[in-house]
Specification:
mainly alpha; 335 residues; two-stranded antiparallel ribbon; flat; 11 helices
């Protein structure tokens, strides 16, 4: 058995002043643990988007009609509020699970040896995005599911996924300066793909804001545009993203690029095809809730796929510290 070190009063004060540093002094996680912590935060950032979509698709957006309490008189949902109250309050509780996952990622990154400050900052960036989105989610409820605030809520969740995906990638890299694996022309093509994907997601929020799934059974304001026209624009952007992805795969094959970018481009292409099939099926079947939920999951996976393609265009090996050689050491001794 391992003897547990007794905590002194000085240790307790140190833990209160800087708990992360206190934990880091006593725990060194394996690299695999740090990667798993970052992946857990990424998975939860996707889960919270999908469950938020379930709230809207079941008409439970105002199941808890106020915020931060569920009702004026109760912090939690009551039995009288029924199914909708349970769904909305359950989604609010998942925010705490997300916070726990992000907290684990922060602690693991801070405790890693040697400490990588950049990883810890990415963890804290996720924390502040979560807090901001929790407040924005409360505003969404207080303004009666205004579609513009709902769109902003989703876009901020996408920002969380972006930072979480970046942190997950950085846990598998070093801190040396990035070295490009492809030429400038390929990098520019990928940036066109990223811009097109951003537009695709942004227009998707307008489709949601103008469409029939308002998030509540009562009359809720919708974005005043033609739902069918904006859906067609969304489809055009989707085809542009698919075309750019196929063109990128072809170019990468032509220039004999490394396997990493090729594999990730292939994965993105397959995700896009699945997402496209879902999109057309749900359009021609009058938007059944189950397919819309799957489409929201697909949207997250598409964005993660685009980010993985972008990040695969360079490598970052472990930083090497230059140590003085024999000649340098001798010269220092003479001095």
């Amino acid at each position: 058995m391992v003897r547990v070190q007794n905590l002194t009063r000085a240790d307790a004060l140190s833990a209160v002043r800087n708990p992360l540093a206190f934990i880091a002094e006593r725990w060194t996680p394996a690299s695999r643990t740090v990667r798993r912590a970052a992946l857990a935060a990424l998975v939860m950032s996707v889960v919270i988007v999908v469950t938020g979509g379930a709230v809207r698709l079941t008409g439970s957006g105002l199941g808890c009609p106020t915020w931060p309490k569920c009702t004026d008189d109760s912090l939690t949902a009551t039995s009288a509020m029924g199914f909708h109250g349970a769904i909305e309050f359950g989604n609010r509780m998942l925010t705490y699970v997300l916070c726990a996952a992000v907290g684990w990622a922060i602690i693991a990154a801070r405790s890693r040896k040697p400490w990588r400050r950049g990883l810890t900052r990415l963890g804290w960036a996720q924390f502040w995005i979560v807090m901001s989105n929790a407040v924005l989610g409360g505003i969404v409820v207080l303004v009666g599911l205004n579609p513009y605030t709902v769109a902003a809520h989703f876009l901020l969740s996408t920002a969380l996924i972006t930072v979480a995906a970046l942190m997950w990638q950085r846990t598998r890299e070093g801190d040396a300066a990035p070295r490009p694996l492809v030429g400038k022309s390929v990098q520019q093509l990928v940036w066109f793909l990223v811009v097109a994907a951003v537009l695709l997601i942004a227009v998707g929020t307008v489709v949601t804001g103008a469409g029939p799934h308002a998030g509540d059974s009562s009359e809720v304001e919708r974005i005043p545009v033609s739902w069918e026209n904006i859906a067609k624009l969304h489809a055009v952007l989707a085809w542009i993203v698919v075309t750019l992805t196929f063109a990128l795969w072809f170019v990468l094959k032509a220039v004999d690029a490394p396997q990493g970018p090729l594999r990730r481009t292939r994965d993105l292409f397959l995700i896009l095809l699945s997402q496209g099939v879902l999109g057309y099926v749900q359009y021609f079947t009058d938007l059944p809730e189950a397919l819309v939920a799957l489409h929201m999951l697909g949207s997250c996976l598409v964005w993660i796929g685009v980010l993985r393609v972008l990040l695969s265009l360079r490598e970052r090996p472990e930083a090497v510290t230059d140590l003085p050689g024999p000649a340098t050491t001798s010269a220092l001794t003479r001095a």
